[in-house]
Amino acid sequence: MVKDSWFTIQEIDNKTFAISEYGHWEKVHSFLLVGNKKAVLIDTGLGIDNIKRITDQLTDLPIVVLTTHVHVDHIGSHGEFENVYVHEADSDWLTNGITGLTIEQIRRDISRDITIPTPKTFNPETYKPYQGTPTGLLQDGDMIEIGNRELIIHHTPGHSPGHLCVFDKINGYLFTGDLLYDETPIYAYYPSTNPLDLINSWEKISKIPYVTKVYGSHNTLGLEPSILQELINAVKELKEKDLVKFGTGIHKFKGFSVQF
């Protein structure tokens, strides 16, 4: 397996790899899915180091980047790839940046709580998030065929307007981006988030059949599909208690939490 000073590469199966950045407080995962004809890279990490160095070692097939959402920690190496896709509702952020999010704030967040040496090429004072025009736009229900492997796009807004999840139908892997992960709260308290959209998206993914494993973009790598049943309970409780709105704080459930 590929060894690297910044990225941790973990084999999910012989055609699916998690590329993780555990040296940073966000503990972000990107995922490489290899088909017979091409490969898909779900997100490109923080941009502290170049993820293409890793994908080049894992496959020589052409790579298509699918963006779960346009936040800095998921688009860091987008500039290294020719084919970059995003949901239409997040495409403006990719091109023009997120309104109201200052470069000072971005640089503060990217450079704090780093526990391993960063590459010499990384300078937090000059760090700039990727901005560019996507190759194409994704919509709910789109199917991406990469050769003996079919990926289905689910539009799941809430954490961002164009957030999406990717379902690998053959293997039953559900890649949930920042819609669902464990350990730290799922964020839906920024002005650009939407608590009601988020829980509707939870409801939506809880109904996807034949999920074998859930892969969120942060923290623990690979959660049991039983967490999807917990989402249904969480949605019910949040609605009944009238908590689905900004300012109600952190709500904890079995295996995950959310902050509105």
Question: Short description, anyone?
Answer:
By secondary structure, this protein is of the alpha/beta class. Helix content is 19%, strand content 26%. Strands 1-2-3-4-5-6-7 form a seven-stranded mixed β-sheet, with no helix packed on it. A five-stranded mixed β-sheet has the order 8-9-10-11-13, with no helix packed on it. Strands 12-15-14 form a three-stranded mixed β-sheet, with helices on one face.
List the uncertain runs.
none
Proportion of residues in extended strands = 25-35%
Helix coverage percent? 10-25%
Shape: globular
What is the alpha-carbon Rg in Å? 17 Å
Strand order in the sheet with the most strands: 1-2-3-4-5-6-7
Counting DSSP E segments of at least 2 residues, the number of strands comes to 15
Listing every helix as H and every strand as E from the N terminus to the C terminus, the arrangement reads: EEEEHEEHHEEEEEEHEHEE
Largest sheet: 7 strands, mixed
**N/C terminus separation:** 40 Å
**Helical run tally:** 5
SS class? alpha/beta
Mean pLDDT: 96
Outline the structure in words.
The protein is of the alpha/beta class and 260 residues long. It contains five helices and 15 strands. The chain has helices at residues 52-58, 91-96, 103-111, 195-206, 226-240, and strands at 8-13, 16-21, 28-34, 39-42, 63-66, 83-87, 136-138, 143-145, 150-155, 164-168, 173-177, 186-187, 213-216, 250-253, 256-259. The strands form three sheets. The chain has a seven-stranded mixed beta sheet, with no helix packed on it. The protein has a five-stranded mixed beta sheet with strand order 8-9-10-11-13, with no helix packed on it. A hairpin with a 2-residue loop joins strand 14 (250-253) and strand 15. Helix 4 (195-206) packs antiparallel against helix 5 (226-240).
